[in-house]
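Consider a protein example.
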Amino acid sequence: MNRSEMIQRCQQGLVWDLIIIGGGATGLGSAVDAASRGLKVLLLEQSDFAKGTSSRSTKLLHGGLRYLKQGHISLVMEALHERGLLYRNAPHLVGSLPFLIPFYRWWEKWFYGIGLKLYDLLAGSLNLRPSRMLTKEEVLLHLPTLVSTHLRGGMIYYDGQFDDARLAISLARTAEGLGATVVNYMPVQGLLKERERIAGVIATDAETGRSYELKAKAVINATGVFVDQIRYLDDPSSAPLCSPSQGIHLVLDRSFLPSDTALLIPSTEDGRVLFLIPWHRHLLVGTTDTAVQAVELEPLPLEKEIEFLLRHIAHYLHRAPKRSDILSLYAGLRPLVKMAGKTNTASLARDHVVVVAQSGLITVTGGKWTTYRRMAQDVIDKAISIADLPVSACRTEALRLHGYQEGHHVVEAWTQYGSDAEELEELIRQHPDWGHNHLLHPRLPYLPVEVVWAVRKEMARSLEDVLARRTRALFLDAKAAVEIAPRVARLMAQELGKSAAWETKEVRAFTELAVQYNSVNELRM
């Protein structure tokens, strides 16, 4: 992907079939769906792809066991179906991860055993692997640092694991490969109308300040927690559609749970489940569910959320992690759909909705990463029906995503490039100092070649783009990410043709951002 080429397409005065606002999971998925049907698509993202919610998930593709407990059978079935499709279509990005539920009370064996067998059954032919009972001894073989007092046994089941930001980049590259135009750092600031009907958008290139009037037959608002802000541009009297909820995650050293099996804590005081998940050689812990009023690109973890997670996981681990053990922590906002009479966000289902305003503006919100493809299918079907676009069936159920390689189910960072790995290896042959013997940091699994690749092929424009989303350095170890920032900025400046002043500015901005990912605020300059 080349941003200059994308901008040039915006300057050609085209009338697009679709303009999609939002470069997260839903927007990118919609661009892939529409482009695969032969539509002329432009996607505009206000910041970087997956900057918001779509890079801040629990990194799971799952049906949702708690939704099963709440009786949302159809939602679970849809999510399990979509999990299976993505496991097939992006094996370089999606892996199967074992999860263990420990039993400390006699009735849990039957309660969770029946529930997980139903979970297997609902997945049908797309089930990853069947669940099974474990003895106490088998549980401790899987999770040796688990508290064993009163432990009676457990059950293991399988769900999907992925890297959310890497999947977003794969979707962007898939859409571009199908003919779509995708532009980051291009915020939409107004809507064009003709005879009270939506006819396009007004957008500004954040890098140059140039404004564009871009026309389209239909406009899709896929901006996640920001959907109401776009809807107010269309109609200031619109009733709010989104009820945002915040969830945070902690990242710890793998030694707290040295296993390739994840731990599921099935019941907390707010009715959620908690996960302790091996991810990129670290341990990911989450999540919380806190109703919020304001929506921001960089939401801040709350003290009570951090304490909530540390307090709950301390009951299950021999060595309870302290605040100073947190390597990174991050917050994300869920775009939950408002429901009459519901005030507790933990009780809101993760269904998605497609809403068409009188002006023709199409809004899609709700859902979760697992069901992004189905959300995209529904909103593109709706756009075709109301904008008199060429009718064609959805093609994404069997569409292989960029980087696809047969039989390549992995979740480690280097192998997530899939078929692009050959080109990366060629770059290393040309520049050995970018290669495998030159880790950017001993605590992180990233190489200099990945920085160059992010700029040349994945439209990374800032230091944050590379350290937060093209790699996951900031999310894995905030302090280590700051330590490598000057070197990464230098590599980027060489690729982008930027000055030393640009490097200094980027390092300063990134260091200031990284403070909120560090639990003890050690990073201030």
